[in-house]
Design brief:
Layout lengths: L11 E4 L3 E7 L5 E7 L9 E4 L2 E3 L2 E7 L6 E7 L2 E2 L4 E2 L14 E2 L33 E3 L22 E4 L1 H5 L19 H10 L3 E4 L3 E3 L3 H5 L10 E7 L11 H15 L3 E6 L16 H9 L25 H16 L5 E4 L17 H8 L7 E4 L19 E3 L1 H12 L5 H8 L3 H4 L9 E3 L9 H4 L35 H19 L4 E5 L30 H19 L22 E4 L8 H5 L5 E6 L18 E7 L5 E4 L8 E7 L12 E3 L3 E4 L3 E7 L8 H8 L1
Parallel strand pairs: 12-13, 12-21, 13-16, 16-17, 17-18, 18-19, 19-20, 20-21
Antiparallel strand pairs: 1-2, 2-6, 3-4, 3-7, 5-6, 7-11, 8-9, 10-11, 14-15, 22-23, 23-24, 24-29, 25-28, 26-27, 26-29
Helix pairs in contact: 8-9, 8-12, 12-13, 13-15
């Protein structure tokens, strides 16, 4: 086989039509072997090529005549000295960190570890068994794809509605998706999926991790696997487990087709990415990729004893973003997914870990600096999960401009308020109005707050109102895993209920959660399946449940269909009312001659709240008025935005309350738009009320009334009531 010197860039395996260039970074290696295999199940390489060329710590070679579909891996030579941070072992075939396709999954055995399992010296021992038959091979791909005119959609943040979903779980049981397609990238391109998202009003899907990931050995040994995928090993490769096509490498095109189809429907694709750690775990973990290529460069190690790893993630290790090549890996991966795969943005798992340079989280870190100056990445949606498990890791509100954040404080206070806890209204007011206390001083806007009440990790909405406690027995850890801090309430009985009063209350609480979410300033995010009340049977940590606990059940009953219709109408209402999705924070004063202040807060007796009211622990009921004629914003063509004025009544008390409706002038008429206590069988008798009249709001309910500043009146309001 002919071997030419090749080039050090680009990293990875690159086919140019005549052959393949291979390039691998390793600062501390003494030699690198490129291993070629005849197929994914080959246990021995057919060719082993010593890569003689080394430029700027990058080992490289070019093999003319090699084609896409070639399977390969690396063996890297160097010192095995864990106390010094080095764990080279050429007996272990390694995954290319820049592999665009990875064929298959790990077949677990003791050979996957660089040390001898069971040896008295533990990871200080050295294992000489070959793992080539157990580790998935990398695959050279042809990156060509007919995109046509496809490009990122750049949906404005204030018009964005995010839907968090799992590629497999969404369609695994969908009756309108062909059975041989379910659970795949291709399944998400079917009309049943696209129609559901469009009918709901979704503008962006946020996919749980699709980077190639590893199911841990301890899960496989228990008959489980890593369902969520927060255990990445291939930051450039879409996971092959979600591929419809069995042909190795073709799933990259399948992923691109999925993105193109979503874009054609006007839906953005956001990826949940895990750059904070890898699947190699702590010092006792397997040698799969980074550990064997250059452990000391890729990972944060304990200064006092470099045998061990700094763990800010709870997953055994933390990637070393202070090393320029590790930082380059992350940036190259992000650019690849934007430029080659056309995704629209990223949600960064445990993002605080990426901003740790020495120890503390640093908003001026190199990671942020590079993202901000990058002409590609600075223009896509960047969402932080603004915490990690390390000291000082909770950083909600502290990320720099250009970033949105999962607002964990929003989730927590909304749950406590709907549950009926006292002492919540002061913080609730901030969260409903865009969290100005968190984002305004740094120059960010209300849409820096990604609002949610549930996500993949935790209870679903149905379980949030049906369980006081987690029920994670199926995970095989004696119910010890998963958080105990759920701020949930079962409405009177644990789990499934037949009592009509409990069933009715739970349905109302679900409507309350959705109404609060979609009437809040900021960017709403819906956890997939909540729109029709999906249950995980009380499991609040279903990371290892690749089964019917996690897969959506599309056989909806009457109550589930009613909730789905309700959510659709709420989203439609939100989209038609710019006062609910302001780009600027409220100022709490009259704007440009408006009839009332842009934002006002009232007690049930119609008087504005005082400082004493805000701080009173017993207050669970209040209302807020959003002035539609006091929006200091213009539309895309520079025209002043005017909307209806909305009055939102909130009653988390366990008894009904009468609210006096504000009357800032004579002749004010309020039109009832929504009451979460109203159902098809007890529909509202009146929908028009005079200012100064009282409106009786049932216990644990929310109502919305409206004054029109336009010549026409919205028909959505009546539709909302009719849908219940």
């Amino acid at each position: 086989m002919r071997v030419w010197p090749g080039k050090p860039y680009p990293l990875g395996a690159t086919w140019n039509g005549e052959g393949v260039n291979f390039a691998l970074f390793s600062e501390n290696a003494t030699a690198v072997d490129l291993c070629l295999f005849d197929g994914p199940d080959s246990t021995t390489e057919s060719f082993r090529v010593r890569m003689e060329e080394r430029t700027d710590q990058i080992w490289h070679a070019y093999l003319p005549g090699l084609w896409p579909g070639q399977h390969y891996g690396y063996r890297v030579h160097g010192p095995y000295a864990p106390e010094e941070g080095h764990r080279f072992n050429p007996h272990k075939l390694l995954i290319d960190p820049y592999a665009k396709s990875i064929a298959g999954t790990i077949k677990w055995s003791d050979a996957m570890f660089g040390y001898q399992i069971g040896a008295p010296s533990g990871d200080l021992s050295f294992d000489t068994r070959d793992n080539a038959g157990s580790i998935p091979k990398c695959v050279v791909i042809d990156q060509a794809f007919t995109w046509g005119g496809d490009r990122q959609l750049n949906t404005p943040w204030d018009r964005t509605i995010i839907y968090e979903m799992h590629v497999k779980g969404f369609t695994a049981r969908h009756p309108d998706v062909p059975q041989d397609t379910r659970g795949s990238y291709a399944a998400l391109t079917t009309p049943a999926v696209i129609d559901h998202l469009l009918d709901l009003g979704i503008t962006a899907v946020e996919l749980l991790p699709v980077h190639h990931f590893v199911s841990d050995k301890h899960l496989i040994d228990r008959g489980l696997n890593n369902y969520w995928g927060y255990n990445s090993i291939g930051f450039f490769a879409p996971d092959i487990r979600y591929a419809r096509s069995p042909v190795r490498g073709r799933h990259v095109r399948e992923f691109k087709t999925m993105v193109k189809t979503f874009h054609s429907a006007g839906i953005e694709v956001i990826l949940d990415v895990v750059y904070n750690h890898t699947a190699e775990g702590n010092h006792l973990g397997p040698t799969l990729c980074f550990r064997g290529i250059d452990n000391a460069a890729y990972y944060k190690l304990v200064d006092e004893d470099r045998r061990y790893y700094m763990d800010y993630t709870g997953c055994g290790n933390t990637l070393n973003v202070t090393h320029p090549r590790t930082l380059q890996l992350i940036m190259d991966s992000l650019r690849y997914w934007v430029m080659d795969m056309h995704v629209d943005g990223f949600r960064f798992d445990l993002a605080s870990a990426l901003a740790r340079e020495l120890h503390a989280v640093d908003r001026l870190s190199a990671f942020f600096d590079i993202l901000h100056q990058d002409p590609v990445l600075s223009q896509v949606k960047l969402i932080a999960e603004p915490w990690d498990v390390g000291e000082g890791g909770y950083q909600v509100g502290n990320f720099p401009v250009g970033w949105a954040e999962w607002n964990g404080k929003y989730r927590d206070v909304i749950r406590r308020y709907v549950k009926g806890d006292g002492g919540q209204v002061a913080e609730l007011a901030y969260r409903l109005t865009g969290s100005s206390d968190l984002y305004s001083t740094s120059g960010r806007r209300p849409y820096a707050s990604v609002n949610f009440f549930t996500a993949h990790d935790g209870f679903t909405l149905h379980d949030l109102v049906s369980y006081d406690n987690k029920h994670n027995e199926a995970n095989g850890e004696d119910n010890r895993d998963g958080t105990d801090d759920n701020a949930s309430w079962n409405c009177g009985t644990e789990g499934p209920a037949d009592d009509p009063a409990i069933v009715s209350l739970r349905a109302r609480q679900k409507r309350n959660f959705f109404a609060l979410l979609l009437f809040s300033q900021g960017v709403p995010m819906i956890c997939g399946g909540d729109e029709f009340g999906r249950t995980q049977r009380g499991n609040n940590n279903a990371y290892c449940q690749d089964n019917e606990i996690s897969w959506f059940d599309w056989k909806l009953n009457g109550a589930e269909r009613e909730l789905l219709t309700f959510v659709r109408k709420l989203i439609e209402f939100r989209k038609s009312h710019p006062v609910l999705r302001r780009r600027l924070f409220f100022q709490g004063r009259h704007i440009r001659g408006s009839e009332v202040k842009d934002l006002s807060w009232f007690r049930p007796d119609g008087k504005e709240l005082t400082d004493e009211d805000w701080n009173a622990g017993y207050v669970r009921s209040l209302s807020l008025r959003l002035a539609g004629d006091a929006i200091t914003e213009t539309d895309d063509k520079g025209r002043t935005i005017v909307d209806e004025t909305l009055l939102i009544l909130l009653n988390a008390h366990h008894e009904p309350l009468r609210f006096t409706l504000p009357a800032h002038k004579r002749g004010v008429r309020w039109q009832l738009t929504l009451d979460t206590s109203v159902t098809a069988t007890n529909g509202a008798v009146r929908i028009i009320f005079k200012g100064g009249e009282q409106y009786e709001l049932e216990a644990r309910s929310l109502a919305v009334l409206m004054i029109s500043h336009k010549e026409r009146r919205s028909l959505v309001s009546r539709d909302l009531l009719d849908s219940l």
